[in-house]
Amino acid sequence: RTYYNTGDTGLFGDMALIQRLYEPDVAILPIGDMYTMGVKEAALALELLGVSRCIPCHWGTFPALTGTPDALRELVTDVEIVDIAPGATITI
Questions:
Q1: Going by DSSP bridges, is the β-strand pair 80-81/3-5 parallel, antiparallel, or unpaired?
Q2: Read out DSSP for the chain?
Q3: Strand order in the sheet with 26-30
């Protein structure tokens, strides 16, 4: 599998080039909507990246980070949103 971790970045058009060159399967995207992407930007990033799974990050740790995995799910239909509780592990 190929993972793309955006870290704290915002949405940018070259995500389409990342998809074309590296064909990531999973994207780790911030969705908090403070300092980084919110759910609207993350939904567009998922479209540009063409991934089948997304692991949301940078959300819910303090009140200013208002984005949630459920809000992202409402905006995308063809991407699995993998919600991970702090300290939990998953298998992708």
A1: unpaired
A2: --EEE-TT----TTHHHHHHHH--SEEEEE-SSSSS--HHHHHHHHHHHT-SEEEEES-SSSTT----HHHHHHH-SSSEE----TT-----
A3: 3-5, 26-30, 53-57, 80-81
pLDDT in tens, 55-76: 999 998 889 999 999 999 999 9
- Scanning the structure block, which residue is given the tokens 């993972």? 3
pTM: 0.92
Report, as an integer, the average pLDDT of 18-42: 96
d(Cα 45, Cα 56) in Å, to the nearest integer? 12
